[in-house]
C-alpha cells in the first residue's frame, strides 16, 4: 500500500499550449472530490463532459472527466483524469483549486510508484514506463513495450521459483545438523545451479543491447584524411553538420549526431583522419578518434576509390573490427571505380557510394540496418533489454551462484551454501521489487517526470 494516505494531483501532459491538458488525481479522497466539483461521481471508466467549477463556483472550463475506481486504475487507487483545453493557465487554475481542496502536488514518479506499491506492476515494469516514454527508435519502443508487459518479470519469476526449490531442498538439512546433504541431492543441486547460472548469463548478455536501445548505436566513421568522412556524415544526417574542404585534415575533433536509420537510433560520430604523418594538432584529433573507436558498436571504414592508398588501421581499431560490426565504405564512386587493396577480412561487407551525389547511400543504409539488427538479444521468444540496475543485480546473483557452486564442490557446511543461495534470491528479488529497499525505490522513482 502507499506510504502516504494523501490524495495527489499533477499535470500529466507536457507544459505549454496544446489542444488539451490532462490533470491526474489519485488517492482516497478522489471520489469525494468528484462529488464536490461535479456534483456527482461519474460512472467508472466513462468519459463525462461537464463543467469544472472552483470552490467559489467560478467556471474554469468545460472538461472531460474520467473516474477510475480502485483497483481498476493505473495506481490501483481511486483516480481521476480531467481533460481541459490546453491553455496552461486553465490547467494551472484547476491544479490550484485541487490543492485548495486538500490535494498534494505529486512528487516525480509518484503515480507509478503507487502503482508498484499497490501491486499493479512489478519494479521492472515500472522502470520500463520511462523507457517507453523516452524511446528514440522503433526497436527501443518495442523492447520497452515488452518490458511494460512483464517480459523481464516473467523471466525473474521463473528463476526465483527454481531457486526457491533448490533453497528448500538445502535448508531442509539445516534443521537436522547430524544429516549431511546426500550425494544424490548434491548432484541435483549442482545441476540446478548450473542451469540458473546459464539463465542468469543469458539475461546479463542483454545488458549491452539495452544500452544501445537507450543511448543509440555508437557508429564511428573512420578513415584517412580527405576520403569524405564528413561528407558522408552530412549525407546520412541530411544537412551540413560538418565542415567540408578539399584541404586534408579539416576535422580536428570528433563530431556526433543522432539520427534514425530504419527502426534504429544511431549516434554517428565523424572523427579526425588517420594521417601517418600528423601535425601536432592532427595528432590530438587522432587520439580522440582512437578513444571513440574504442567505444564503437559499429564501424564505417571509409576508403577512397580514386587511387589514394588506404592507411593501415591502428592496432586499437583493427583488433575491434569484425564482419559483424563493420562496413567498408568505398567512397567517391562518382570519380572512379577501382577497389583499393585492403588488409582487412574479406567477410566485411563492402558498399560503393558517392557521399557527394548520394549514389549508393540507400544500399549503405540497408547494410547498416542489417548490422544493427544483428545486435538484438532475445531470451526465448522475448526481446529483453535490461538496464544498468538490472545488470548490477544479476552480476551480484552470478557471483553468489559461483560461490555456491564452489562450496558445494568443496563439500563445505550446508549453512554456507544456503547463505549464498539467499544472496542470489535477494539479487533476483531486487529486480522485480520483491525486496523492500525504500532508499532504492525513492532514488529510482525520483528520475521520473512529474505526473507519471
Structural write-up:
The protein is of the alpha/beta class and 452 residues long. It is built from 15 helices and 14 strands. The strands form three sheets. It has a six-stranded mixed β-sheet with strand order 3-4-5-2-1-6. Strand 8 and strand 9 (264-270) form a beta hairpin. Helix 6 packs antiparallel against helix 7, helix 7 (183-204) runs antiparallel to helix 13 and helix 13 runs antiparallel to helix 14 (414-432). The longest helix has 22 residues, at 183-204.
* Secondary-structure-derived class: alpha/beta
Rounded to the nearest angstrom, the radius of gyration is: 29 Å
Shape assignment: flat
What is the overall pLDDT average? 85
Task: Outline the secondary-structure elements.
Blueprint: E1 8-11, E2 18-26, H1 30-38, E3 48-53, E4 59-68, E5 79-86, H2 88-100, E6 104-105, H3 110-117, H4 123-134, H5 138-148, H6 151-171, H7 183-204, H8 207-215, E7 217-223, H9 229-237, E8 255-261, E9 264-270, H10 280-294, E10 298-304, H11 315-318, E11 326-331, E12 350-352, H12 361-373, E13 378-379, E14 382-383, H13 388-409, H14 414-432, H15 438-445
Parallel strand pairs: 1-6, 7-9, 7-10, 10-11, 11-12
Antiparallel strand pairs: 1-2, 2-5, 3-4, 4-5, 8-9, 13-14
Helix pairs in contact: 4-5, 6-7, 6-14, 7-13, 13-14
Amino acid at each position: 500500500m502507499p506510504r502516504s494516505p494523501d490524495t495527489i494531483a499533477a499535470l500529466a501532459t507536457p507544459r505549454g499550449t496544446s489542444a488539451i491538458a490532462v490533470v491526474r488525481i489519485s488517492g482516497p479522497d478522489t471520489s469525494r472530490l468528484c462529488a464536490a466539483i461535479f456534483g456527482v461521481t461519474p460512472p467508472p471508466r466513462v468519459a463525462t463532459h461537464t463543467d469544472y467549477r472552483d470552490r467559489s463556483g467560478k467556471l474554469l472550463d468545460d472538461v472531460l472527466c474520467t473516474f477510475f475506481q480502485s483497483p481498476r486504475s493505473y495506481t490501483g487507487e481511486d483516480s481521476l483524469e480531467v481533460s481541459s483545453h490546453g491553455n496552461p493557465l486553465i490547467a494551472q487554475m484547476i491544479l490550484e483549486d485541487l490543492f485548495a481542496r486538500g490535494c498534494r502536488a505529486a512528487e516525480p514518479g509518484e503515480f507509478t510508484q503507487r502503482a508498484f506499491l499497490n501491486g499493479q506492476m512489478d519494479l521492472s515494469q515500472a522502470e520500463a514506463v520511462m523507457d517507453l516514454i523516452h524511446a528514440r527508435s522503433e526497436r527501443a519502443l518495442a523492447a520497452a513495450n515488452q518490458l511494460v508487459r512483464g517480459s523481464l518479470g516473467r523471466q525473474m519469476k521463473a528463476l526465483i521459483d527454481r531457486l526457491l526449490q533448490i533453497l528448500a531442498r538445502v535448508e531442509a538439512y539445516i534443521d537436522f545438523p547430524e544429516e549431511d546433504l546426500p550425494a544424490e541431492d548434491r548432484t541435483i543441486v549442482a545441476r540446478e545451479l548450473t542451469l540458473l547460472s546459464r539463465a542468469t548469463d543469458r539475461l546479463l548478455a542483454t545488458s549491452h543491447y539495452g544500452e544501445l536501445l537507450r543511448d543509440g548505436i555508437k557508429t564511428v566513421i573512420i578513415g584517412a584524411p580527405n576520403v569524405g568522412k564528413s561528407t558522408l556524415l552530412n549525407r546520412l544526417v541530411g544537412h551540413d553538420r560538418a565542415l567540408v574542404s578539399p584541404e586534408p585534415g579539416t576535422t580536428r575533433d570528433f563530431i556526433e549526431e543522432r539520427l534514425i536509420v530504419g527502426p534504429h537510433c544511431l549516434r554517428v560520430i565523424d572523427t579526425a583522419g588517420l594521417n601517418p604523418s600528423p601535425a601536432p594538432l592532427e595528432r590530438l584529433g587522432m587520439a580522440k578518434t582512437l578513444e571513440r573507436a574504442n567505444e564503437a558498436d559499429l564501424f564505417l571504414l571509409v576508403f577512397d576509390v580514386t587511387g589514394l592508398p588506404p592507411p593501415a588501421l591502428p592496432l586499437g581499431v583493427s583488433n575491434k573490427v569484425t564482419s559483424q560490426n563493420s562496413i567498408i565504405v568505398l567512397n567517391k564512386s562518382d570519380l572512379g571505380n577501382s577497389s583499393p587493396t585492403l588488409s582487412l577480412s574479406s567477410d566485411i561487407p563492402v558498399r560503393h557510394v558517392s557521399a557527394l551525389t548520394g549514389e549508393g547511400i540507400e544500399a549503405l543504409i540497408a547494410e547498416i540496418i542489417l548490422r544493427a539488427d544483428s545486435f538484438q538479444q532475445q531470451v526465448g521468444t522475448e526481446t529483453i533489454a535490461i538496464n544498468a540496475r538490472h545488470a548490477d543485480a544479476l552480476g551480484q546473483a552470478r557471483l553468489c551462484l559461483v560461490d555456491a557452486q564452489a562450496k558445494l564442490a568443496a563439500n563445505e557446511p550446508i549453512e554456507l551454501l544456503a547463505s549464498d543461495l539467499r544472496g542470489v534470491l535477494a539479487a533476483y528479488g531486487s529486480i522485480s521489487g520483491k525486496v523492500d529497499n525504500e532508499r532504492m525505490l525513492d532514488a529510482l522513482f525520483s528520475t521520473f517526470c512529474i505526473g507519471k
